[in-house]
Every structure is written in C-alpha cells, then in structure tokens.
Write a structure and sequence with these properties.
Layout lengths: L16 H7 L7 H21 L13 H8 L3 H33 L5 H19 L3 H9 L7 H11 L7 H15 L6 H19 L10 H14 L2 H11 L10
C-alpha cells in the first residue's frame, strides 16, 4: 500500500520522511560530538594547569599578601595556560551542548525534559568557566608590572578566585544524569553511556553539593570527554534507531 499523501490534505503540513531523517543526527553528522572531545580535553588541561596556581595555598605564605603575590609572579605561565585552555574549550562546549540536546531529543521525543536538563547543566558549566577566567587578564599583566602597581590584596583575591570558581562543575553532573536516564531507563543512547552518566554524574553532583564542591572538577571533564568520545565513535546502533523513530517508520521497515 502506498504511503503517498494527496495534495490538499493535512499531510501537506507534515515534514516528509526525508526531511525528518535529515534533521536527525546520524553517523555522518557528528561534528558536535567531536567538538565535545575537544572541550573535554581542554577542560582536563585547564584543571591540570589550574592545579599549578597554588600561591594562596602555600603554607609559608598564607596570611602574607606580599609573599603570595611574589609567589604568583612565578605562576604566570600556569595562569596563561589555564586561561587559554579554558576559553578555547567554551565554544566547543557550546556546540556539544546543543548537539547533545538535539541527540537526546531525537531519541526521547519532544516531551522529554532530559534534553533541556542536559543543555542547562552544560550552560551552567560554561558560565562558571567564563566567570572563572574573568580576572585573568588583570592578574597576568599586573604580575608583570612594577611591584608598586599591583595591590597584594588583589593578587590574593584572584588566587582564591582561580582556586574556586572554575572548579564548580556541578552542572556537568546534571547533564550526565540526564544522559544516564536516557540510556539506562529509555535505551535512547548506548547503555554504557547511560551507566557512565549515572556513575560520574552522581559523583559530580554530590561533590558539587557538598563542601568539597571543587572536587567535582575531577569528574565533570572526565565524563564530558568519555561521553563525547562515545557519541562520536560508538553511537551507530542507537543513531539508526533514532532515525527510524524520527521518520515515523520503525527501523528496518520502509514507508511503502
């Protein structure tokens, strides 16, 4: 039986099967996932670089703003590396966040909240990273200026700022749990991605809520990289199922 819709019917306003399939992310359209790989690498690199900015935590300098400032002058390279890596990852993370929301929506349908939760969680990460780097320019150039042009108290403030704000990755826990629910409960993504989302997402979220909130940065970027790699190279079966759902035709069947 032909599935052709005659002109003048309500079907004129419905998207064709080809249009729906083209709107569904497929194996050949995974640049958003590769952007996530880049964002994950940049995020991990930013965390590693940030670990080297430890002047305010040096036991020999705690409470001495001048000593902290002197120590920070030797850490300009680490601050610059953190700044570049973090901000280079933000545009990539934005692309991944949009692609992830679209991918989940293709598998779960427009009524599901999971795609929106995943998107919002990564937006929160981007806000924290953007704010975390907002004082970098002032401190990088200030530390290279003559000593009397930089207030030691400002250097101490920036040291604590760098040691706190960029580490707030709690939003990634929200996104990870959204992917976890999509994979484990609804089978809308590969189950291993779902379990990774549940495990790493729960750890990230609980640490982010706790007084040890900065430890979330050890799990959030790791989940981001693993998930992006999974969608980029290990999502073929689920993508095919999602394509069939989007066209209104079960996978493996024709419209004719």
């Amino acid at each position: 039986m032909s599935s052709t819709i005659q002109p003048g019917t309500a079907g004129d306003w419905a998207p064709s099967a080809a249009a729906a399939a083209s709107a569904t992310p497929g194996p050949g359209r995974r640049w958003w996932a590769l952007a996530g790989v880049g964002a994950g690498i940049a995020g991990i690199g930013g965390v590693i670089a940030n670990l080297g900015i430890s002047a305010v935590y040096d036991e020999d300098a705690i409470g001495d703003a001048v000593a902290v400032t002197d120590n920070m002058r030797d850490m300009v390279g680490e601050i610059l590396a953190f700044h570049v890596l973090t901000l280079a990852g933000l545009p990539l993370l934005a692309v991944f966040a949009a692609g992830l929301a679209r991918r989940l929506r293709a598998g779960l349908g427009p009524a599901s909240l999971a795609p929106t939760v995943a998107l919002v969680g990564l937006v929160l990460v981007m806000v924290a990273q953007l704010m975390g780097t907002s004082l970098d320019t002032e401190i990088i150039f200030g530390l290279q200026a003559p000593e009397d042009e930089l207030a030691p108290e400002f250097a101490v403030t920036v040291g604590h700022w760098l040691g706190t704000v960029p580490w707030v990755w709690i939003g990634a826990g929200m996104s990870a749990l959204a992917v976890g629910v999509a994979g484990v409960r609804h089978r809308a993504v590969p189950r291993w991605l779902g379990w990774a989302g549940l495990v790493l997402g729960l750890a990230t979220l609980l640490l982010g809520i706790s007084p040890l909130q900065y430890m979330a940065a050890f799990f959030g970027p790791l989940w981001l990289l693993a998930t992006a790699l999974g969608f980029a190279f290990g999502d073929r079966r689920t993508q095919g199922s999602a394509s069939g759902t989007a066209t209104g035709v079960p996978a493996g069947h024709s419209a004719g």
